[in-house]
Structure formats: C-alpha cells, structure tokens
Design brief:
The protein is mostly loops and 70 residues long. Helices cover 14% and strands 11% of the residues. It has a domain of 44 residues.
Length: 70
Amino acid sequence: MYRVPLREFGLAHVVPEGLLVRRAPKAPDDISEVEKYLAALDDPEMPGTQFQWEGRNRIHIRTPPHRASQ
C-alpha cells in the first residue's frame, strides 16, 4: 500500500469550475482534463476547506472567501 501525496486531506476541495473534468477519457492517454484537475487540487493558491460530519448523511464544509484568478 502507498499514499498519494495531496496538498489537503479530506473529501472537499476548492477548484476553479473551468478545471473540473467534464468528460470521460476516450483512450488511456487522453488525460489532459484529469491532469488539469489534479494540478488544481495541489495548487497552494486555492483555499483550504474544513469538512465536518453532522450526522450519518449530512456534512458542513467551510472555506474562506477567495477570488479565482483565471
């Protein structure tokens, strides 16, 4: 087993909408959208999140205000 390093552990992450993966890869080497998304996850300019369970099926996610620079 191994661990993939991430800037932040948790289930909630802030990424610019334009970097979300919009389509499934068409071939094994068709990963440009996925690479952009992964780069956004590791971007230290993106604000962090606080993720808290509030019961079995409810969560509370907090993040500081942030103006995206796209």
